[in-house]
Automatic annotation (TrEMBL), chain A:
It comes from the Eukaryota. Keywords: Repeat. InterPro entries: RCC1-like_dom (IPR058923), RCC1/BLIP-II (IPR009091), Reg_chr_condens (IPR000408), Ub_ligase/GEF_domain (IPR051210). The keyword Repeat applies. Transmembrane segments: none annotated. Residues 20-389 form the RCC1-like domain. It comes from Anisodus tanguticus. SUPFAM superfamilies: RCC1/BLIP-II. PANTHER family: ANKYRIN REPEAT-CONTAINING PROTEIN (PTHR22870:SF466), REGULATOR OF CHROMOSOME CONDENSATION (PTHR22870). This is RCC1-like domain-containing protein. RCC repeats lie at residues 18-71, 72-123, 124-175, 179-232, 338-393.
From TrEMBL, chain B:
This is Diphthamide biosynthesis protein 3. Pathway: Protein modification; peptidyl-diphthamide biosynthesis. Belongs to the DPH3 family. It comes from Anisodus tanguticus. InterPro entries: DPH3/4-like (IPR044248), DPH_MB_dom (IPR007872), DPH_MB_sf (IPR036671). One of its GO terms (molecular function) is metal ion binding. The keyword Nuclease does not apply.
Length: 399, 81
């Protein structure tokens, strides 16, 4: 046997294996389990997705999910009664289903809103479908669509990202020019950031104000909130205010010395991840967890913004790798060992802790992994009342 | 504790449910019927969870001939394939 053949025979190959877990509200089929019920424990749904793996990105909306494969394909499932799944009909779908109308188009980014969806291709095209009754599809009308339709407003521009909230959408364009963020849909709470005055409904994309000479890395939308992070780590928020303050009609930079890498929006709170792996929270949960308990257990006031930004304390020594926010719950993945932690509203089991209790601080979710393979990298994605985790294991196998 | 205060004009009329609706953070919808509004009910409940919202509206708008009542100006979603 030649030495080259020996090398090949003994080579240790590393291969990645992916696990997908879901839990929480499930009565619209959004958990991808094939059942129409809430799950209080994490459910492994690898089987239904295994033929499409690996999954590169998930986005969870009000009650539907969009998954992107590393090959640029799109799968959707869950509530489809407004056309948000894009399969050409207005019905729910219990299992991940490939989006045929986008086949042949390499989708690199997607966002699931309350009842609408946005998709971005590698060539910079943006498509929307679902509920359009507030103009949130951006096609210049208030009509819902059950198949993704290209937004011709941006046909000569390169779209990088789309973010879908409850009744509005944001689009981030690629490039060094100005006018990089656009908004459309309901602007009643200032979430479009297009005017200093109240704008009710806008059905064609309008320029979001206040980003002159600012280069934006990412945009996020949920509920009536909007947020963006600049390439130099500054956080901007607009729309419905946190802590019952007046609504913010023009994007406002959060004044702090911290630098941020990610923001995740709920309906009354935002989680932000610093470049140092620390997590801070803006606003509070708006359900019946006493404010005092939240303050005492998990937060430390750090910002001059009227105490709206507070550090999640439990992580003094543990670095956080990624964060997610549902309407009224929060989740994170630790950077070192891929542990998933959740807290907030738990009535539908969206915390994955085996019960329906609320939690005022982060709790470890037990993702039972039979083979206990390590290391693993996890990513968490939250819908309104449910949660998904995608974990990738690196498996060594000798040949 | 009421989850939120929501103006009636921000709620959507749902023909199937025969109720005004607003998104609930659990994924379902808060609902209130015209009959409830007529008798002064201001709590819209979610059938799937314990949360409820307070609806801000003028009761007189819902009294008398229901045809006179001006429904939200938004048209019902129309499916376009």
């Amino acid at each position: 046997m030649s030495s080259k053949a020996m090398e090949e025979t003994e080579r240790v190959e590393t291969k990645e294996e992916e696990e997908i877990w879901s839990w929480g509200a499930g009565t619209e089929g959004q958990l991808g389990t094939g059942k129409l019920q809430d799950e209080h424990h994490p459910q492994l749904i690898q089987y239904s997705l295994s033929s499409f793996c690996p999954i590169s990105h998930l986005s969870c909306g009000g009650a539907h999910v969009i998954a992107l494969t590393s090959g640029g394909r799109v799968l959707t499932w869950g509530r489809g009664t407004s056309g948000q799944l894009g399969h050409g009909e207005m019905v729910n779908c219990l299992h991940p289903k490939s989006l045929e109308s986008l086949e042949g188009i390499f989708i690199t980014h997607a966002s699931a809103g309350w009842n609408h969806s946005g998709f971005v291709s590698d060539t910079g095209y943006v498509f929307t479908c679902g509920d359009g009754s507030f103009g949130q599809l951006g096609h210049g009308d208030y009509i819902s669509r059950c198949s993704p339709e290209q937004l011709f407003h941006f046909k000569t521009r390169h779209v990088q990202q789309v973010a879908c909230g409850m009744r509005h959408s944001l689009v981030l364009l690629k490039g060094d020019t100005e006018d990089l963020i656009y908004g459309f849909g309901s602007g009643k709470r200032g979430q479009l950031g297009i005017s200093d005055d109240k704008q009710k409904l806008v059905s064609t994309p309008q320029v979001t104000l206040g980003f002159e000479n600012v280069k934006i890395k990412s945009v996020t939308a949920n509920g009536d909130h909007s947020a963006a992070i600049s390439v130099n780590g500054h956080l901007y928020v607009w729309g419905r205010a946190f802590c019952r303050a007046p609504d913010v009609y023009r994007p406002r930079r959060v004044t702090t010395d911290l630098l941020f890498s990610q923001v995740a929006l709920g309906w009354n709170h935002a989680l932000v991840l610093t470049c140092d792996g620390e997590v801070y929270i803006l606003g509070r949960y708006n359900y019946n967890v006493p404010t005092g308990a939240q303050n005492a257990n998990m937060m430390k006031h750090i910002s001059e913004d009227e105490g709206v930004m507070q550090r999640v304390l439990d992580f003094d020594s543990t670095k956080v790798g990624q964060i997610g926010a549902g309407a009224e719950h929060s989740a994170l993945v630790t950077a070192d060992n891929g542990s998933v932690m959740t807290w907030g509203w738990g009535e539908h089991g969206q915390l994955g802790l085996g019960d329906t209790n609320d939690q005022t601080g982060p709790q470890v979710v037990s993702l039972i992994d039979e083979q206990s393979r390590k290391p693993c990298v996890g990513r968490v994605y939250c819908g309104s009342g449910f949660t998904f985790v995608v974990r990738t294991h690196t498996v060594n196998s000798s040949f | 504790m009421s989850y939120d205060d929501v103006e009636i004009e921000d709620m959507e009329w749902n023909n199937e449910l025969q109720a005004f609706t607003y998104p609930c953070p659990c994924g379902d919808m808060f609902q209130i019927t015209k009959e409830e509004l007529k008798i002064g009910e201001e709590i819209a409940r979610c059938p799937s969870c314990s949360l409820y919202i307070t609806v801000i509206y003028n009761m007189e708008d819902f009294l008398g001939d229901s045809k006179k009542h001006v429904e939200p100006s938004k048209q019902q979603p129309v499916a376009v394939a």
